[in-house]
Amino acid sequence: MTDLAAQSHVLSTLRGQRIETASWAYGNSGTRFKVFAQQGVPRDPYEKIADAATVHRFTGVAPTVALHIPWDKVADYPDLARHAADLGIALGTINANVFQDDDYKLGSVTNADPAVRRKAIGHLLECVDIMDATGSRDLKLWFSDGTNYPGQDDVRTRQDRLAAALRETYDRLGPDQRMLLEYKLFEPAFYMTDVPDWGTAYLHCTQLGERAQVVIDTGHHAPGTNIEFIVAMLLRAGRLGGFDFNSRFYADDDLMVGSADPFQLFRIMHEIVLAGALEQSAGIAYMLDQCHNIEPKIPAVIRSVMNVQEATAKALLVDHAALAAAQQAGDVLEANAALMDAYHTDVRPMLRELREDMGLDPDPIAAYKRSGYFEKIRDERAQGQAAGWGA
Ligand code: LRH
Ligand code: MN
Ligand code: MN
Question: What is the phi/psi pair of residue 30, to 5°?
Fold first, then answer.
């Protein structure tokens, strides 16, 4: 490829990239110590969708918003989908919530009590009904299930209960719908989590069928975990369904993706690019799962989208021929340099050009600030509601 052809390939790939934002990123959120209320936060799911549409208006690559049920429960889902379409976006992944009910203290689908399991499965099935109404492709499942003490419950029996719940839910999916199973190392359970890692999620997915896929939430690993290795393994197995992108320093911090470790995000995107998995036909969902506790929310989501774009652009700039030649020759330093050269490229001018080409402002955050949207929502929305947890 000539330099010019390579550049145009990079630009057209970036133009086609899609990043889903999360409804809960727009609402008030915090830690268990304090939720800091912000001005202008949405009062209902309709207003969360308006904020997501605003992010798309300034970035051009965030045309869907994920919902979390029951945080985003409404009486009329087709109406919510129409509202999104009127604003130029669509409803995306449906996230189930079986972690915020007193009944789930000892687990949801893994609970020893069959009545609690039935209630949890009922919610998962209800989420598929909602997907039918919204036209969503993906059902995302994360279970807080686990135990705090050795001996508290039987590990294998809990896995059996989990498998049965996943089977019933999977069998309810339509032919074009998928189940995305998300793992998390710990929290809120501290001794044993029922879906703690990609291996456990992968095992369940392979038993279910091809439309069961693993989700990697970048904040859900032990410090130092080589996440790009997990990306490569799941890509190789054809079981990478998507990402919940965010950034962390210590645990599941849910900070802006690419803020603590942009190099890790680049390494992840490099594996994606190497596997040709950026194309939408590869079926990998790129989602943000973040909470903006102290920074203004809409600009933070815009910044996060830009961070993903920058990491992707750098990954696309890796000279694959030079990399492969160095690897083949066993030239460790040249192989590493092929990656580092791309990583150290300043891709911001290229992304500014791309945005102008797409009819967007080259500086989305400045354009948002100038737009008057914040002043409008601040005045219109007197009493914002919490994102879902901890009011
Ligand atoms: C759990 C998690 C999961 C939930 C979201 C709100 O930590 O990452 O994806 O649905 O947070
Ligand atoms: Mn997540
Ligand atoms: Mn999380």
Answer: 180, -155
Which CATH number goes with the domain that contains 145? Answer: 3.20.20.150
Structural domain includes residue 337: no
**Would you give the DSSP letter of residue 85?**
H
- The reported pLDDT for the residue numbered 5 is 78
Closest CA to 244 of 254, 235, 236, 234: 254
What's the rounded mean pLDDT across residues 194-219?
Answer: 98
Is 95 a pocket residue for ligand 1 (Cβ < 6 Å)? yes
Q: How confident is the model at residue 26 (pLDDT cuts 50, 70, 90)?
A: very high
- Please report which ligand is nearest the Cα atom of 291: 1
- Please report whether residue 281 resides in a domain: yes
Q: Is the CB of 182 under 6 A from ligand 1?
A: yes
CA of 251 to the centre of ligand 1 (A): 13
Residues of the domain holding 171:
17-311
CB count, 10 Å around CB of 117?
Answer: 21
Asked whether 274 and 320 are in contact (CB, 8 A), the reply is yes
Alpha carbon of 289 to ligand 2 centroid (Å): 5
**Which residues, at least 6 apart from 319, have a Cβ–Cβ distance to it below 8 Å?**
338, 341, 342
pLDDT digits (tens, 9 = 90+) for 114-144: 999 999 999 999 999 999 999 999 999 999 9
Answer yes or no: is 172 within a domain: yes
Cα(281) to centroid(ligand 2), Å: 23
The number of distinct structural domains making up the chain is 1
CB burial string 148-179: b at 16+ within 10 A, e below: eeeeebeeeebbebbbebbbebbebbeeebbb
- Residue 200 in domain: yes
What pTM, to 2 d.p., does this model score?
Answer: 0.97
Average pLDDT score, the chain: 96
Q: What is the pLDDT of residue 6?
A: 79
Q: Does the structure show a pLDDT above 70 at 62?
A: yes
- Note the ipTM here: 0.99
